[in-house]
Design goal:
By secondary structure, the chain is of the alpha+beta class. It contains 18 helices and 23 strands. The strands form seven sheets. The chain has a seven-stranded mixed beta sheet. Strands 20-19-21-22-23 form a five-stranded mixed beta sheet, with helices on both faces. A three-stranded antiparallel beta sheet has the order 5-4-6. Helix 5 packs antiparallel against helix 7 and helix 7 runs antiparallel to helix 8. Bound molecules: glycyl-adenosine-5'-phosphate (GAP).
């Protein structure tokens, strides 16, 4: 319940402080579609830049592209999306509500997992400093029982989905006595597959129009361009191609705010490698991507790997980096060993050779591909929800503060004249003029300074710069830090260096 409350706070805070709005809200909104507002777009851009810097510009052997959203429709036949990009759906006959069958089972397991966490909490309280969590998880009979149950359910679900045995998925739901989360009814239909791609048309007249799909992943834009990029860049294997961009899926379970959207943005990188080396590259990218996440300081305990039981039609190994969202651990990023499936399929469907000539071994081969794929919106939610805290201060008042990593914060500093007279606004405006070449900064003169501090805390601004009467003589200002609320007197000419130190991508990525 506490988590549910926290999640509601996240959603309303995102609206109140100009981060995320429901799309077309004046028409009562469009389900699972959202707009990014004035602060949201800055945060989103900063996350995208942080990824691009780490993945593209810091790697000599990775380049970026920006492929079109529309692609030739055969792309999706070749990739397997027309035939196999389905979700198993189940309807409740009483409530007429539709659910993803696998999500119903996974949510059931998440409830068992919550019981494990409860046991851990109890034991932590009981044993204090002497508590060894790893040992407890491996030896406590009740925890082992819960874990065994989860493993057996998920393994059966994985096998049934892999074998397309949808009748068994329904049996599993009935055996576990899973009820409609909204009404409690257990009156289920059979499980059916449902394709997630959105269709559209290209062409002026109905007779000549060509059926198109809105891309459900950005990856295929990379595959079909891989040889053009390789030849024009003269990159040698191993090398990567990255891109960020919109993807579209007709998601049925579209709750949880921007976690699962119908229009969303991906940041993907396909790494082209020699066949047979995929295991070591899989481990490499698993580790590298987790390191990227940890560099943002959201807490090591909030991440975990989840290896896939059920592999997608293109993969020979896959893992998720999961994040502790307000509604529990869920997939944030996928790392997939995609073999040569996609390139071979595109060769077959296009009739074009997509082989690479390896000058070192003097042979032609179809490269294998290691993919890292993260949802930008999901990353936004991870950062935003983790940063929103309610603090009790020493004087027993509370403050709401959005402790965004400073490197990602939309506004780096707010410049505040203590009063609207005596020349203080002029100095403050001059500071804004100087700083805005390097940082996104704002000027704010409304309300008492304490209220302005609170407003910036809640908006996630890491620094407030206050110009007071002493500034007229000593060319100094008060610099206030959002997280510690500490204030120090600094020279105006030093502001840029101090802020840069705290917000530069280099300092954050280097750790
Ligand atoms: N190219 C591989 C691929 O698309 P995926 O696991 O289906 O793999 C990758 O998606 C990432 O995209 C996920 O880890 C998630 O962060 C994000 N994602 C997928 N579907 C999404 C949705 N409906 N809304 C928001 N993000 C989504």
């Amino acid at each position: 319940m506490a988590n549910e409350d926290q999640f509601k706070k996240v959603i309303s805070h995102a609206k109140e402080y100009g981060y995320v709005f429901q799309s077309s809200e004046i028409y009562d909104g469009l389900s699972a579609v959202y707009d990014y507002a004035q602060n949201g777009v800055e945060l989103k851009n900063n996350i995208r830049n942080y990824w691009w810097k780490a993945m593209v510009q810091m790697h000599e052997n990775i380049v970026g592209i920006d492929a079109a959203i529309f692609m030739h429709p055969t792309t999706w036949k070749a990739s397997g999306h027309v035939d196999a990009f389905n979700d198993p759906l189940i309807d409740n006959k009483d409530s007429k509500k539709r659910y993803r069958a696998d999500v119903l089972v996974e949510d059931y397991c998440a409830k068992i997992e919550a019981k494990i966490e409860k046991e851990v909490k109890k034991a932590t309280k009981r044993f204090g400093d002497a508590f060894d969590k790893a040992q407890f998880l491996q030896t406590n009979p009740r925890v082992l029982g819960y874990q065994e149950k989860i493993d057996s359910i998920l393994s059966r679900l994985g096998k049934s989905l892999e074998n397309e045995d949808l009748a068994d998925v329904k049996n599993l739901i009935e055996e576990l006595e899973i009820a409609d989360p909204l009404t409690g009814s257990k009156n289920w239909t059979d499980v059916k597959q449902f394709n997630l791609m959105f269709g559209t048309k290209l062409g002026a007249s109905a007779e000549n129009a060509m059926d198109l799909y809105l891309r459900p992943e950005t990856a295929q834009g990379i595959f079909v361009n891989y040889l053009n990029v390789q030849k024009s860049s003269r990159l040698k294997i191993p090398f990567g191609i990255a891109q960020t961009g919109k993807a579209f899926r007709n998601e049925i379970v579209a709750r949880q705010f921007i976690f699962r959207m119908r229009e969303f943005e991906q940041m993907e990188m396909q790494f082209f490698i020699k066949p047979g080396t995929q295991k070591e590259w899989f481990e490499h990218w698993k580790e590298h991507r987790l390191k990227w996440h940890l560099s943002l300081g959201l807490g090591e305990d909030n991440y975990r790997y989840h290896d896939h039981e059920k592999l997608a039609h293109y993969a020979d190994a896959a893992t998720d980096i999961e994040f502790r969202f307000p509604f529990g651990f869920k997939e944030l990023e996928g790392i997939h060993s995609r073999t040569d499936f996609d390139l071979k399929q595109h060769e077959e469907y296009s009739g074009k050779k997509l082989q690479y000539f390896d000058p070192e071994s003097n042979e032609h081969y179809t490269p294998y591909v290691l993919e890292t794929s993260i949802g930008l919106d999901r990353m936004f939610l991870a950062v935003f929800s983790n940063s929103l805290v309610e603090e009790t201060l020493p004087n027993n008042t509370t403050r709401t503060v959005l402790k965004l990593p400073a490197v990602l914060a939309p506004t780096k500093a707010a410049v505040l004249p203590l009063v609207k007279k005596d020349g203080l606004p002029d100095i403050a405006k001059k500071i804004v003029e100087d700083l805005k070449w390097d940082f996104n900064v704002i000027y704010d003169e409304k309300d008492a300074v304490g209220r302005r501090y609170r407003r910036q805390d809640a908006a996630g601004t890491p620094f407030c710069i206050t110009v007071d009467h002493d500034s007229l003589d000593d060319n100094s200002v008060t610099l206030r830090h959002r997280d510690t609320m500490e204030q120090s007197r600094v020279k105006i000419e030093d502001l840029s260096t101090i802020i840069n130190n705290e917000v530069s991508v280099k300092n954050w990525l280097k750790g």
